[in-house]
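Need residues for this backbone.
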Protein backbone atom coordinates (compact mmCIF):
# COMPACT_ATOMS: atom_id res chain seq x y z
CA UNK A 1 0.00 0.00 0.00
CA UNK A 2 1.24 3.47 -0.85
CA UNK A 3 1.40 6.17 1.79
CA UNK A 4 -1.55 7.89 0.09
CA UNK A 5 -3.64 4.71 0.18
CA UNK A 6 -2.81 4.16 3.85
CA UNK A 7 -3.79 7.73 4.69
CA UNK A 8 -7.05 7.42 2.73
CA UNK A 9 -7.83 4.10 4.45
CA UNK A 10 -7.20 5.64 7.86
CA UNK A 11 -9.47 8.61 7.22
CA UNK A 12 -12.13 6.42 5.64
CA UNK A 13 -12.20 4.00 8.60
CA UNK A 14 -12.51 6.89 11.04
CA UNK A 15 -15.37 8.41 9.07
CA UNK A 16 -17.27 5.10 8.92
CA UNK A 17 -16.65 4.34 12.62
CA UNK A 18 -18.24 7.66 13.61
CA UNK A 19 -21.40 6.75 11.68
CA UNK A 20 -22.13 3.39 13.34
CA UNK A 21 -24.78 3.35 16.07
CA UNK A 22 -23.28 1.30 18.97
CA UNK A 23 -26.69 -0.20 19.73
CA UNK A 24 -27.03 -1.47 16.16
CA UNK A 25 -23.54 -2.95 16.39
CA UNK A 26 -24.52 -4.86 19.53
CA UNK A 27 -22.40 -2.83 21.97
CA UNK A 28 -23.94 -2.64 25.47
CA UNK A 29 -24.90 0.83 26.62
CA UNK A 30 -22.22 2.54 28.62
CA UNK A 31 -23.55 6.01 29.23
CA UNK A 32 -22.98 9.13 27.16
CA UNK A 33 -20.11 9.25 24.67
CA UNK A 34 -17.86 12.19 23.93
CA UNK A 35 -18.02 11.47 20.19
CA UNK A 36 -20.63 9.66 18.08
CA UNK A 37 -20.15 6.14 16.79
CA UNK A 38 -18.01 3.26 17.97
CA UNK A 39 -14.77 3.48 19.90
CA UNK A 40 -11.61 2.02 18.39
CA UNK A 41 -11.45 -0.74 20.97
CA UNK A 42 -15.03 -1.72 20.17
CA UNK A 43 -14.29 -1.97 16.45
CA UNK A 44 -11.22 -4.08 17.24
CA UNK A 45 -13.15 -6.42 19.54
CA UNK A 46 -16.06 -6.88 17.13
CA UNK A 47 -13.67 -7.48 14.22
CA UNK A 48 -11.41 -9.95 16.00
CA UNK A 49 -8.20 -7.88 15.90
CA UNK A 50 -6.12 -6.25 18.61
CA UNK A 51 -6.86 -2.71 19.72
CA UNK A 52 -3.27 -1.67 19.01
CA UNK A 53 -3.29 -3.12 15.49
CA UNK A 54 -6.58 -1.42 14.60
CA UNK A 55 -5.26 1.86 16.03
CA UNK A 56 -2.27 1.55 13.71
CA UNK A 57 -4.65 1.21 10.76
CA UNK A 58 -6.40 4.44 11.72
CA UNK A 59 -3.00 6.09 12.12
CA UNK A 60 -1.96 5.14 8.60
CA UNK A 61 0.92 2.93 9.75
CA UNK A 62 2.80 0.83 7.19
CA UNK A 63 0.75 -2.34 7.59
CA UNK A 64 -1.55 -4.17 5.22
CA UNK A 65 -4.67 -5.95 6.50
CA UNK A 66 -5.57 -9.34 5.10
CA UNK A 67 -8.69 -9.90 3.04
CA UNK A 68 -10.31 -11.62 6.05
CA UNK A 69 -9.63 -8.59 8.27
CA UNK A 70 -11.00 -6.18 5.65
CA UNK A 71 -14.16 -8.26 5.39
CA UNK A 72 -14.51 -8.31 9.18
CA UNK A 73 -14.09 -4.53 9.40
CA UNK A 74 -16.66 -4.06 6.65
CA UNK A 75 -19.18 -6.10 8.66
CA UNK A 76 -18.44 -4.29 11.92
CA UNK A 77 -18.63 -0.84 10.35
CA UNK A 78 -21.80 -1.70 8.42
CA UNK A 79 -20.19 -0.78 5.10
CA UNK A 80 -22.28 -0.73 1.96
CA UNK A 81 -21.16 -2.99 -0.94
CA UNK A 82 -19.58 0.06 -2.60
CA UNK A 83 -17.70 1.01 0.57
CA UNK A 84 -16.52 -2.58 1.08
CA UNK A 85 -15.26 -2.71 -2.51
CA UNK A 86 -13.51 0.64 -2.01
CA UNK A 87 -11.58 -0.61 1.04
CA UNK A 88 -10.65 -3.82 -0.78
CA UNK A 89 -9.14 -1.78 -3.59
CA UNK A 90 -7.32 0.56 -1.19
CA UNK A 91 -5.73 -2.43 0.53
CA UNK A 92 -4.76 -4.18 -2.70
CA UNK A 93 -7.40 -6.92 -2.53
CA UNK A 94 -9.68 -5.56 -5.25
CA UNK A 95 -9.41 -5.34 -9.01
CA UNK A 96 -7.09 -2.85 -10.62
CA UNK A 97 -8.42 0.39 -12.06
CA UNK A 98 -7.49 1.44 -15.62
CA UNK A 99 -5.47 4.65 -15.58
CA UNK A 100 -6.94 6.09 -18.76
CA UNK A 101 -7.53 5.63 -22.45
CA UNK A 102 -4.55 4.23 -24.32
CA UNK A 103 -4.44 6.92 -26.99
CA UNK A 104 -7.27 9.42 -26.71
CA UNK A 105 -10.61 8.61 -28.28
CA UNK A 106 -10.61 5.48 -30.51
CA UNK A 107 -12.36 6.07 -33.82
CA UNK A 108 -14.58 3.01 -33.46
CA UNK A 109 -15.83 4.24 -30.06
CA UNK A 110 -16.70 7.61 -31.59
CA UNK A 111 -18.63 5.80 -34.34
CA UNK A 112 -20.55 3.92 -31.65
CA UNK A 113 -21.52 7.19 -29.94
CA UNK A 114 -22.61 8.67 -33.27
CA UNK A 115 -24.76 5.59 -34.00
CA UNK A 116 -26.84 6.22 -30.88
CA UNK A 117 -28.77 8.90 -32.76
CA UNK A 118 -31.01 11.04 -30.52
CA UNK A 119 -29.64 9.51 -27.29
CA UNK A 120 -27.07 11.89 -25.77
CA UNK A 121 -23.80 10.09 -25.05
CA UNK A 122 -20.21 10.92 -24.17
CA UNK A 123 -16.97 9.12 -23.26
CA UNK A 124 -14.79 9.81 -20.23
CA UNK A 125 -11.43 8.48 -19.10
CA UNK A 126 -10.79 6.90 -15.70
CA UNK A 127 -9.93 10.42 -14.50
CA UNK A 128 -13.29 11.69 -15.85
CA UNK A 129 -11.87 13.76 -18.70
CA UNK A 130 -14.48 14.01 -21.47
CA UNK A 131 -12.77 12.84 -24.66
CA UNK A 132 -15.71 12.33 -27.03
CA UNK A 133 -19.44 12.90 -27.47
CA UNK A 134 -22.17 12.70 -30.08
CA UNK A 135 -24.29 15.47 -31.62
CA UNK A 136 -27.22 14.68 -29.31
CA UNK A 137 -25.06 15.33 -26.24
CA UNK A 138 -23.73 18.56 -27.70
CA UNK A 139 -27.31 19.73 -28.17
CA UNK A 140 -28.20 18.70 -24.63
CA UNK A 141 -25.13 20.51 -23.28
CA UNK A 142 -23.86 22.93 -25.97
CA UNK A 143 -21.03 24.14 -23.74
CA UNK A 144 -19.08 20.89 -24.00
CA UNK A 145 -17.53 21.89 -27.33
CA UNK A 146 -16.67 25.40 -26.15
CA UNK A 147 -14.87 24.34 -22.98
CA UNK A 148 -11.06 24.27 -23.39
CA UNK A 149 -9.82 20.67 -23.59
CA UNK A 150 -7.75 21.12 -20.41
CA UNK A 151 -10.91 21.94 -18.44
CA UNK A 152 -13.17 19.36 -20.06
CA UNK A 153 -13.47 17.20 -16.96
CA UNK A 154 -16.94 15.99 -15.97
CA UNK A 155 -16.53 16.61 -12.24
CA UNK A 156 -15.04 20.06 -12.83
CA UNK A 157 -17.92 21.06 -15.09
CA UNK A 158 -20.59 19.71 -12.71
CA UNK A 159 -19.27 21.85 -9.86
CA UNK A 160 -18.16 24.98 -11.72
CA UNK A 161 -20.22 25.49 -14.90
CA UNK A 162 -23.44 27.48 -14.27
CA UNK A 163 -24.94 25.96 -17.44
CA UNK A 164 -24.56 22.44 -16.04
CA UNK A 165 -26.00 23.56 -12.72
CA UNK A 166 -29.08 24.93 -14.51
CA UNK A 167 -29.37 21.83 -16.68
CA UNK A 168 -29.46 19.38 -13.76
CA UNK A 169 -32.88 19.69 -12.12
CA UNK A 170 -31.54 18.17 -8.87
CA UNK A 171 -28.05 19.66 -8.96
CA UNK A 172 -27.37 19.15 -5.24
CA UNK A 173 -28.25 15.46 -5.35
CA UNK A 174 -26.69 14.76 -8.73
CA UNK A 175 -23.43 16.55 -7.96
CA UNK A 176 -23.14 14.62 -4.71
CA UNK A 177 -23.62 11.32 -6.55
CA UNK A 178 -21.01 12.27 -9.12
CA UNK A 179 -18.55 13.09 -6.32
CA UNK A 180 -19.06 9.81 -4.44
CA UNK A 181 -18.71 7.79 -7.66
CA UNK A 182 -15.57 9.68 -8.65
CA UNK A 183 -13.96 9.05 -5.26
CA UNK A 184 -14.82 5.35 -5.45
CA UNK A 185 -13.09 5.16 -8.82
CA UNK A 186 -9.93 7.15 -8.10
CA UNK A 187 -9.41 6.23 -4.43
CA UNK A 188 -6.38 4.00 -5.04
CA UNK A 189 -4.93 6.73 -7.31
CA UNK A 190 -5.37 9.77 -5.08
CA UNK A 191 -1.63 10.49 -5.33
CA UNK A 192 -1.72 10.76 -9.14
CA UNK A 193 -0.77 14.34 -10.13
CA UNK A 194 -3.88 14.78 -12.26
CA UNK A 195 -6.19 13.70 -9.44
CA UNK A 196 -4.33 15.84 -6.87
CA UNK A 197 -4.60 18.89 -9.12
CA UNK A 198 -8.29 18.37 -9.90
CA UNK A 199 -9.26 17.88 -6.24
CA UNK A 200 -7.26 20.94 -5.18
CA UNK A 201 -8.87 23.15 -7.85
CA UNK A 202 -12.36 21.89 -7.02
CA UNK A 203 -11.82 22.39 -3.29
CA UNK A 204 -10.79 26.00 -3.98
CA UNK A 205 -13.68 26.63 -6.36
CA UNK A 206 -16.65 24.92 -4.66
CA UNK A 207 -17.68 24.84 -0.98
CA UNK A 208 -20.20 22.12 -1.90
CA UNK A 209 -17.36 19.98 -3.24
CA UNK A 210 -15.20 20.62 -0.15
CA UNK A 211 -17.97 19.43 2.15
CA UNK A 212 -18.70 16.33 0.10
CA UNK A 213 -15.03 15.40 -0.31
CA UNK A 214 -14.40 15.73 3.44
CA UNK A 215 -17.16 13.18 4.14
CA UNK A 216 -15.17 10.39 2.40
CA UNK A 217 -18.46 8.98 1.09
CA UNK A 218 -18.24 6.58 -1.85
CA UNK A 219 -20.83 4.86 -4.00
CA UNK A 220 -21.08 2.69 -7.09
CA UNK A 221 -22.59 3.84 -10.33
CA UNK A 222 -26.10 2.49 -10.89
CA UNK A 223 -28.41 3.09 -13.84
CA UNK A 224 -31.13 5.49 -12.76
CA UNK A 225 -33.43 8.22 -13.96
CA UNK A 226 -32.03 11.74 -14.19
CA UNK A 227 -34.09 14.91 -14.62
CA UNK A 228 -32.91 17.75 -16.86
CA UNK A 229 -34.32 21.23 -17.45
CA UNK A 230 -33.32 22.19 -20.98
CA UNK A 231 -33.81 25.80 -22.11
CA UNK A 232 -35.02 24.71 -25.54
CA UNK A 233 -37.24 21.63 -25.00
CA UNK A 234 -38.09 21.87 -21.30
CA UNK A 235 -38.13 18.97 -18.83
CA UNK A 236 -36.39 15.77 -19.87
CA UNK A 237 -36.65 12.58 -17.82
CA UNK A 238 -33.82 10.34 -19.00
CA UNK A 239 -32.30 7.04 -17.94
CA UNK A 240 -28.60 7.26 -17.19
CA UNK A 241 -26.41 4.28 -18.22
CA UNK A 242 -22.69 3.56 -18.18
CA UNK A 243 -20.79 1.08 -20.37
CA UNK A 244 -17.12 0.09 -20.67
CA UNK A 245 -15.87 -1.16 -24.05
CA UNK A 246 -14.02 -4.47 -23.74
CA UNK A 247 -11.24 -3.22 -26.03
CA UNK A 248 -10.98 0.23 -24.40
CA UNK A 249 -11.14 -0.47 -20.63
CA UNK A 250 -9.83 2.98 -19.79
CA UNK A 251 -13.01 4.57 -21.12
CA UNK A 252 -16.55 4.77 -19.77
CA UNK A 253 -19.41 5.53 -22.13
CA UNK A 254 -22.27 7.45 -20.54
CA UNK A 255 -25.57 7.19 -22.40
CA UNK A 256 -28.90 8.90 -21.73
CA UNK A 257 -32.06 7.29 -23.09
CA UNK A 258 -35.66 8.43 -22.87
CA UNK A 259 -37.39 7.15 -19.73
CA UNK A 260 -40.52 5.09 -20.28
CA UNK A 261 -43.98 6.50 -19.72
CA UNK A 262 -43.30 10.09 -20.70
CA UNK A 263 -42.62 12.34 -23.66
CA UNK A 264 -38.83 12.40 -23.33
CA UNK A 265 -38.39 10.54 -26.64
CA UNK A 266 -40.36 13.23 -28.47
CA UNK A 267 -38.41 15.99 -26.74
CA UNK A 268 -35.08 14.34 -27.62
CA UNK A 269 -36.21 14.09 -31.25
CA UNK A 270 -37.04 17.82 -31.24
CA UNK A 271 -33.68 18.56 -29.67
CA UNK A 272 -31.90 16.62 -32.41
CA UNK A 273 -33.94 18.15 -35.27
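Answer:
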Amino acid sequence: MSATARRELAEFLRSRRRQVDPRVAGVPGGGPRRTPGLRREEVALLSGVSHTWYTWLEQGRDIRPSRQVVDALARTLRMSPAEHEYVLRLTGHGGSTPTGAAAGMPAHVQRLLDALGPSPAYAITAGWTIVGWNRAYERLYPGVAAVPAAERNLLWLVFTDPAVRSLLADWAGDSRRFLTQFRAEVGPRLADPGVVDLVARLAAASPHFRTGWASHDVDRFSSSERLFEHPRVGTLLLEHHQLTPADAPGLHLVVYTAAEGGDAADRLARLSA
